[in-house]
Amino acid sequence: MTDYPNPLIPGFNPDPSVVRVDGVYYLATSTFEYVPGIPIYRSTDFANWEHVANVATDISQIGVEEVITGGGVWAPTIRNHDGLFHLIVTIAMGRGCVVYTATDPAGEWSQGTLIEGIEGIDPDLAWDEDGTAIVTYSGLVTVGPDAGLHTGIRQSRVDLVAGRTLEAPRSLWAGSGFKFPEAPHLYRRSDWWYLMIAEGGTERGHGVSIARSASPYGPFDPNPANPFLSARSTNRPIQNTGHGDLVEAPDGSTAIVLLGVRPRGATQAFSALGRETFVSSIEWVDGWPVAEPVILRPREESLDYRIDFAEAAELDLGWMAVRRNPATVATITDGALAVVADGTTMDDHRPAFLGRRQLTQTAAFSTEIDTASGSGGLTVRYDELTHYDLEARATAEGVVVTARAAVPGIRQEWSAVLPAGAVTLHLDSEPTPISFSAEAMTSDFVVFRARSGDTEVTLARVDGRYLSAETAASFTGRVAGVYAVAGTPRFGWFAFAGSND
Ligand code: 6LW
Fold first, then answer.
1. Which GO biological process entries does UniProt record here (predicted)?
2. Which residue has a Cα nearest atom 6 of ligand 1?
3. Whether residue 2 has pLDDT greater than 80
């Protein structure tokens, strides 16, 4: 198989699912509390992917207004049946198991049909020979007195239109004995039905296992070499590999897309970007898959961008808000992004915030804020407890800029006064020295800088380990953007420059 870029889709894009139709690939990932939900990436060569749509363009399709952090949109499966695209997903601690349809994945998706009777997560969708839809899922109880109970991999025939199961669930497999058998996918390949799962949990112990049967309903016999893919106990640069989905690659071979992390620091401890989408190749030996290790191959081309709101007619697909529609946070008005404060701060569940995924390990985010009409700033966020902010507000003395490092239970601030006028805010993550020192243990340092006219100040340099999936114990990743805390601050542009150093 060709050596595809790895990560295939950089930045927080976990639980990837992919389908190939008429030589075109469509890939979807999880979005948790963010809106719009469930990005669709399209490719015709499997190497270059374009973000062409979001399944949930309106919060009413996913209902994540009240979901707890860590809940929300979990683990989509995208498939095509009889010319109609289907995407099934769990809105964890929210709507439950929901299926969306579209004739073109790059177009509009349906409002979503709740499937009653699927008590679990990570639903997969397949059809048996007579066209009956089958949902195979991980029996994790997420709400109620039994929350946390795991009942293994389960399955039911369903009526997708009526939104209900057609039978009581059957148990299929509990995996190889590792924790959390999840992310099941059912595939028909030659005379076998294969049931592929993730197990071991989405952290360092993650892996992919598989079993097969002559029937989609089992019984399933496990692959003696399970887990056939895992990075556990290796010092590979890509860790936590698991939660995969199989697809035919352009050359006819089999590819697996899966999640993984790129931890940094002398002991490979901290993953700033969270779980990203990677790819590896599969060879079939005696009817069982044999996987190549997941090799790091960062893209050569630059991922840098600058968005000038004077030239942007509307917010592009990459902008996300937290538990609310982006349009309720900000609009592009008179050549600037006007972000409307509503009494919230970055400590809130639904901040007046718009952000984008960090795409590279080392990153420089910057923006220009005009505080004449309000206060706000630039931030890098994991969640309402974990965020690094650089905030500006106009006063009689000038523009007061405040750097803030907020982590669970701890907060520190640094302030400076700049001359009145538009202020440029910078949050730069810089790599750590390659050595065996305290400084080298972390993933990076985040430097808070601000400039007005010829005056520039560096307010702070803070350890970046707190903005990592491991320290924040998070399913997401770094999301950087702009926010408002009072009035309606106006942002002239937003820029990202990065490298994978
Ligand atoms: C996903 C499940 C998982 O549904 O985390 O840890 C959930 N494993 O497979 C969210 O990514």
1. carbohydrate metabolic process
2. 202
3. no
Joined tokens for residue 290: 């044999």
Compute the distance from residue 61 Cα to the ligand 1 centre, in Å: 20
- Tokens representing residue 28 in the block: 């979807």
Taking the C-alpha atoms of 266, 269, 271 and 277 in order, what is their torsion angle to the nearest 10 degrees?
Answer: 100
Distance 198 CA to ligand 1 centre (A): 9
Q: Is 182 a catalytic residue?
A: yes
pLDDT averaged over every residue in the chain:
97
pLDDT, mean of residues 29-42: 98
Is the distance from the beta carbon of residue 118 to the nearest atom of ligand 1 less than 6 Å? no
Asked if residues 152 and 172 have their Cβ atoms less than 8 Å apart, the reply is yes
15 has catalytic annotation = yes
Measure Cα distances from 71 to 95, 143, 345, 480 in Å.
11, 11, 21, 20
Ligand 1 geometric centre to CA of 425 (Å): 35
How high is the pLDDT of residue 367? 98
Q: What is the pLDDT of residues 312-332, one digit of tens each?
A: 999 999 999 999 999 999 999
Exposure b/e, 31-65, CB count within 10 A at least 16 = b: bbbbbbbbbbbbbeebeebebbbbbbbebebbbbe
What are the structural domains of the chain? 24-233 (2.115.10.20), 305-499 (2.60.120.200)
pLDDT at position 278 is 98
One-letter identity of residue 477: G
Q: Is 137 in the pocket of ligand 1 (CB under 6 A)?
A: no
Probe ligand 1: pick from 33, 202, 209, 257, max atoms within 8 Å of CB? 202
Cα(1)–Cα(379) distance, integer angstroms: 40
Q: Summarize pLDDT for 418-447 with one digit per residue, the tens.
A: 999 999 999 999 998 777 788 899 999 999
Closest approach atom of ligand 1 to CA 475 = 11
Atom of ligand 1 nearest to the CA of 14: 11
Catalytic residue among 119, 182, 368, 383: 182
| Dist. CA 6–CA 10, nearest whole Å | 8
CA–centroid distance, 14 to ligand 1, in Å, is 8
List the beta strands (DSSP E) in 324-443.
Answer: 330-333, 336-339, 353-357, 362-370, 374-383, 386-395, 398-407, 410-418, 423-431
Binned at pLDDT 50, 70 and 90, residue 500 comes out as confident
For ligand 1, atom 9, the nearest C-alpha belongs to 183
Q: What pLDDT sits at residue 499? A: 84
